[in-house]
Design brief:
single chain, alpha+beta, Ubiquitin-like (UB roll), 6 domains, 6-stranded mixed beta barrel, 4-stranded mixed sheet, 6 helices, 24 strands
């Protein structure tokens, strides 16, 4: 081998050795740098939405660390410590993403982003106050998650009048029916609610429940007996004799009384039963007239006879005069068709009454009039009458329950009408 060849070979080997050495140095420096780079990283305890992990980082601040970890931070998110805090070895960093919460108050919605965990904390953050009477869903101590909904119905005061009891109540009800159900107010078949059940409630509304009851009242009343007079030829004219004593009868009347909140508003006769019929009183009235017989004897006899006749006539005249005087002293008129009827009373202010009679008389405008309701087939409308215990009146009205031997007396007010009850009275038709 020539010297040039040897020289070239040696030169080539030296170049290779030099290249290898350079590569080795570069590798060494890289390894040292990598070791130094890793060794200079800070250890950080990072908690993301409750999940904790330990990482090593060269980030300078908490914000840089979160960007490095691909965490997008919004203003409502929770970052502890703040994003501007410097990273130190062993530091703990917490990030919690804000939840989207929808709050509805009486139908009006608002949305907030928060990291609060409980309903109470969310409402405090939203500056919404609730009272113990408000309706809240879910409850104050309930947990909330992302996209949770909180519904609030604000309570308002309503006045409830149940019968005669009145009280103020806080309510979140929407309608009258819902309110009564919420308050557990049971409305019976006869009861009445003054407001419509579908009416929408507003603050300070008044809900009134009228308690209606129907009760039965049985009234026993004595029925007067009729008086029959019979002519008796055996009695002197002007004399009377009781042939048969009268005896009052007994009737049992059943009334249906309707009360509203404990006060009677109507009284309807449902049935009437005769327990015992009255026994009429029979009076014999004398028709016998005493006359003297004329003798054809002496004048003295004629004088005696004349004296006897005069005495008899005087006696008859006296009896007649006494009878007439007694009749004129009685409150009952001497003339007119007389009989007994069953009498009740009414007013112009009863339920369903207009105050105008069948003959056009305005009783409300004339409360002092004496008017009776009659069955026109028994007592013609427009007749002048006299009623025992009532006085002179006019038959100026009719009634659905006034049939046959019944009359209804007009009274100025309900107390007098109820106090009258039902009675058997004498009546006379004067024309």
């Amino acid at each position: 081998m020539s010297n040039n060849s040897m020289k070239n070979l040696f030169t080539s080997l030296r170049k290779k050795q030099t290249g290898i050495a350079i590569i080795a140095v570069i590798l060494f420096i890289s390894v040292i740098s990598a070791v130094l780079f890793v060794g200079t990283k800070n250890t950080v305890a990072l908690t993301v939405n409750g999940k904790q992990q330990e990482i090593r980082t060269h980030a300078d601040t908490v914000g840089d660390l979160l960007i490095e970890q691909n965490v997008q931070v919004s203003d409502a998110d929770l970052v502890l410590p703040s994003v501007n805090t410097s990273i130190k070895n062993g530091i703990s960093v917490e990030w919690e993403q804000a939840k989207k919460i929808t709050i509805t108050v009486d139908g009006k919605q608002q949305t907030i982003h928060t990291t609060a965990d409980q309903v109470s904390e969310v409402l405090k953050e939203a500056n919404i106050k609730v009272s113990e009477h408000d309706k809240l869903s879910p409850e104050l101590n309930a947990k909330v998650g992302s996209d949770s909904n909180i519904a609030i119905e604000k309570a308002f005061q309503v006045t409830l009048i149940d019968g005669v009891k009145e009280k103020k109540i806080w309510s979140t009800s929407t309608t009258v029916a819902d309110f009564l159900k919420q308050q557990e107010i049971k409305v019976k078949k006869l009861d009445r609610v003054e407001q419509k059940m579908e009416d929408v409630l507003i603050p300070n509304d008044v809900i009134q429940v009228v308690r209606v009851e129907k009760v039965t009242d049985v009234v026993e009343a004595k029925k007067n007996f009729a008086v029959e007079t019979r002519k008796d030829k055996g009695l002197l004219k002007g004399n009377e004799k009781v042939v048969q004593e009268g005896k009052k009868g007994l009737t049992k009347s059943t009334y249906e009384i309707t009360t509203e909140n404990g006060k009677a508003v109507s009284r309807v006769l449902k049935s009437e039963k005769v327990v015992s019929a009255p026994t009429k009183k029979v009076i014999a009235v004398g028709t016998k007239v005493v006359t003297a017989s004329v003798s054809r004897g002496t004048t003295s006899s004629n004088k005696a006879t004349t004296a006897k006749t005069t005495t008899a006539k005087a006696t008859t005249a006296k009896a007649t005069t006494t009878k007439t005087t007694t009749a004129s002293a009685s409150p009952s008129p001497s003339e007119g068709k007389e009989f007994y009827v069953s009498a009740t009373a009414y007013t112009a202010f009863c339920n369903g009454c207009s105050g105008i009679t069948a003959t056009g008389i305005n009783l409300r405008a004339n409360p002092g009039l004496k008017v009776i309701a009659v069955d026109p087939s028994v007592i013609p409308l427009g007749s002048k009458v006299w009623v025992e215990g009532y006085g002179y009146a006019i038959a100026g009205d009719t009634g659905g329950a006034i049939k046959g031997m019944k009359i209804d007396l007009f009274m100025p007010n309900k107390d007098q009408a109820f106090g009258f009850g039902r009675k058997q009275v004498k009546i006379k038709i004067l024309n």
